[in-house]
């Protein structure tokens, strides 16, 4: 599970409440592909229950799991940055209940309220930095000749 702050901890109550007013509850059965790497990123989710595995397409191989997400975590960050294309894939590892957000509506809210925009950008940026590090470490573990090299200095 991630060590990035969930939305509930990253945003002040007034901003969380504004965002939650446009959320809709959704569920995904275990094994459901939520989105595919390279697809159009037009929404995102905050997990209420269950777990989601992020994976990455590797030509000629099974997609390796990059990270597993759970309660309170953000699923999807590509909705915030043009060209709004998923950089990873996501599949429900177990039955998932989540809050779903329309990306365009949230981007418009952020444009309309610069304080909200800055906070959302900072939150998603922290999630992004963590996910990129997780992807790097996982791919090194899978494909580098000596693993991730934890402890090896360059």
UniProtKB/TrEMBL annotation:
Ranges for domain Cyclic nucleotide-binding: 7-76
InterPro entries: cNMP-bd_dom, cNMP-bd_dom_sf, RmlC-like_jellyroll
Source domain of life: Bacteria
PROSITE patterns on file: CNMP_BINDING_3
Protein name: Cyclic nucleotide-binding domain-containing protein
Organism name: Streptomyces atriruber
């Amino acid at each position: 599970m991630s060590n990035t702050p969930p939305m509930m901890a990253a945003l002040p109550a007034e901003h969380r409440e504004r965002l939650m007013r446009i959320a809709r509850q959704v569920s995904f059965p275990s094994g459901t592909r939520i989105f595919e790497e390279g697809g159009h990123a037009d929404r995102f989710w905050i997990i209420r229950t269950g777990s989601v595995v992020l994976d990455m397409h590797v030509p000629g191989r099974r997609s390796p799991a990059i990270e597993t997400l759970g309660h309170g975590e953000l699923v999807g960050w590509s909705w915030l940055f043009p060209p709004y294309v998923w950089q990873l894939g996501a599949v429900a590892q177990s039955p998932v209940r989540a809050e779903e957000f329309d990306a365009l509506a949230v981007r418009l809210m952020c444009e309309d309220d610069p304080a909200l925009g800055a906070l959302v950008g900072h939150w998603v940026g922290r999630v992004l930095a963590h996910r990129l590090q997780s992807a790097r470490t996982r791919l090194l573990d899978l494909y580098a000749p000596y693993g991730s090299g934890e402890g090896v200095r360059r």
